[in-house]
Structure formats: C-alpha cells, structure tokens
Amino acid sequence: MVFLTISNLIRVRGPDEFWRKRRIFRLAAHFVGRRRNCYSVAVRNVHRALVYATKARKLKKQDMKDLWNTRISAACEQHNITAFTLKEGLDRSNIMLDRKSLSDLASWEPRTFECLAAIAKQKLQLDGFIDTVDKKYPTGVNLNLKDVMLEAWLKEKK
After folding, report:
1. In sequence order, what are the residues at sequence separation of 6 or more whose Cβ sits closer than 8 angstroms to the Cβ of residue 123?
2. Which domain holds residue 139?
3. Range 109-131 average pLDDT
4. Total number of domains in the chain
5. Lowest pLDDT segment from 25-29, 78-82, 112-116
6. What is the DSSP letter of 29?
7. Is residue 27 part of a domain?
8. Does position 83 have pLDDT exceeding 70, yes or no?
9. Which family does the record claim for this protein (predicted)?
10. Does the residue 69 lie in any domain?
C-alpha cells in the first residue's frame, strides 16, 4: 500500500484494530441487535458478561457444595445420625471420603451409605465420643454392623 500523503498514513490503524475488534465481536456473536453489531455497545456488554461469568464460577462451586451437604444431611437423618458425627466417625476410622463422594453414595448407593454410617457409629461408640450437637451418644436406628454386613446383603439378593 502506497500513501501519497502523511494524513492517509495516520488514518490507517493497521491490522491490530481489526483483530482487537474481531475478538470482541466473536464474544458478542450470540447477542441480539446492536449489542452484537455495534463495537462500542458490544464492548460494554462483553465486559459485563465476562464479569458475570467470573462470579458465576464461584457461585457454581458454592451451589454444588450446598447440594452435597443437603444430600449428606438428608441421608444421615434417615439413619438417625448427624452429618458431623458421620464425618467424625469416618475420619477416626481412616475412611477419607469427601463431600462429593459421600453425596453420591447417599444418592445412588444407599446400602453402602448405611454401612458407612454404621461403621462411623461403631467407631465413635468404641472411642466414647459424645456428639457436641446432641450432647449424647449417637443413636442410629438399626445401624449395627452385624445387620448391614455384605454377606447378609448378598444372601438377600439371591
């Protein structure tokens, strides 16, 4: 490209502007109206969308944590044991399961969760642990290890 005057050279901003605008327009491709086509409007809306996306990543993690806690506490309530007592008993038994794993077991493997609750209760009884929430020994209804052993469950299935 040959420029006869310096004023024409100044007006051309080169390829950098094209690619800068292209990046914004690609991020705004799913918007409607001027938010998609007009650069100055698109820039504002893309920046706002990116801020919301950043905040939403943290909120999604918190939502999943709340869901897992709800599932665990509901399953613990069925077995008459608090979530804190369950976690304490599993920690003392060296069963290291995180919230997500316990939540999945509570939802999809209720027998396995029942066994874990029985193990936690048994370990806390052996240690003489008193729950700080209830101020009493954990009381699980029909949560003896003999009742929920794998062999009894396998016999029941056949």
Report:
1. 89, 92, 93
2. 64-157
3. 87
4. 2
5. 78-82
6. T
7. yes
8. yes
9. Belongs to the bacterial ribosomal protein bL20 family.
10. yes
Give the chain's mean pLDDT.
83
The sign one gets for the Cα dihedral 59, 65, 70, 73 is negative
Kind plus residue range of the DSSP H or E element containing 30: none
Measure the CA dihedral 85/91/96/98, to 10°. 40
Q: What end-to-end distance do the CA atoms of the chain give, in Å?
A: 85
Question: What one-character-per-residue DSSP string does 55-109 give?
Answer: HHHHHHHHHHHHHHHHHHHHHHHHTT--HHHHHHHHHHTT----HHHHHHHHHH-
Residue 94's φ and ψ, nearest 5 degrees, are 60, 35
What confidence tens digit (pLDDT) does each residue in 16-39 have?
A: 888 899 999 999 999 999 999 999
DSSP-derived letter for residue 148 is: T
The per-residue pLDDT for 48 is 96
Report the distance separating Cα 67 and Cα 75, nearest Å. 12
Residue 107 resides in a domain: yes
**What's the CA gap between 124 and 128, in Å, rounded?**
6
